[in-house]
Amino acid sequence: MARFGRDRRAAREPEGQEPAREPPAATRAPRPGRDEPGRRPPELGERDSAVRSQRSRHYDRRAELIERTQLTSTGTIRLTFQVVDGRPFVFFPGYFVSVESEIPGGFRHSPYCILSRPGQAPIFELIVRLVDGGERSAYLGSLEVGDLLAFRGPGGHSMLPRASALDLVLLATGVGIGPLHSLSAELLESGFERSIRLFWGLRMAEDICLLDELEALAADHPGFSFQVSLSQPPPGWRGLRGRLTQSVPPLLSTLGSSEFRLVGNGAMTEEMAIALGDMGVGKEAIYREAYFNGRHQPDRATMATIRSGFVATDLLAPSALDPAELFHLERPLGSRRPPGGERD
């Protein structure tokens, strides 16, 4: 049961409106002063109730936090929610929920891709990196078991492959592993017969998490494999080294038999999408989701270095027809912006 005791939190009414005017959307009977989403730290003070009411009215869905797990010492957490508003919660891998976060000065709305499989609904999971100075991630990090979350969704674009006859190559940085974990688990449990290769770029060994689940997928499904690439590896590290744009191209012996999913840091998604296009991969085979750095523009020297790392020769590469690099850099083939603003 969601707890909103006044002795544990600052007394407040539901999101800037009187309970009698607009009761909470949860299926249980409303309890004035208790059934509000999230928590309101006392130092935030009072705000313009008209603005709060206008903005929160669109975020009328409710989910209760039922489990919180600290995944790493560097600030990555897993939040498990159960939808409690009695409405359907249907999604595909790659879908997100838009969360209403209460921060100093008002409310912010941010999309978070779903970590769990669709089959777990109405329970869903988010993986969140707590960022220093990140108000939205701090809000989610402040939630405790029993708190309610105000959200919209789920919505977005499915990451399911268009053609079952193609392999999948998945690249994620940081918490971009979330939707790719969902995608891999869903496909493998559904009998996907092609190979799935997952590459996960992180900074340090301390950032690694979800190993038990990924290793279980690899053990149960011979067609699935994953590798972690560290940009700051410790001594003796036996995994991949460097950024994904450095470590992955030499491992791709062919390109034309695969679809690609690129999720996370916009620098990686932009550079890798452009490089794949330059190597002959069609735009329909590239899906990109930038969590931040969405306006990153790589320079020619960077792109030349990335292209030089590819060993695949099965496609006609446009870059091979332009050795002088006279072509101009454009927004990558198959590019796509994140669903609704920046993320912490």
Automatic annotation (TrEMBL):
Keywords: 2Fe-2S, Iron, Iron-sulfur, Metal-binding. Residues 58-161 form the FAD-binding FR-type domain. PROSITE patterns: FAD_FR. Residues 1-61 are annotated as: Disordered. Signal peptide: none annotated. Its cofactor is FAD. Coiled coil: none annotated. Residues 1-21, 32-50 have a biased composition (Basic and acidic residues). This is FAD-binding FR-type domain-containing protein. It comes from uncultured Acidimicrobiales bacterium.
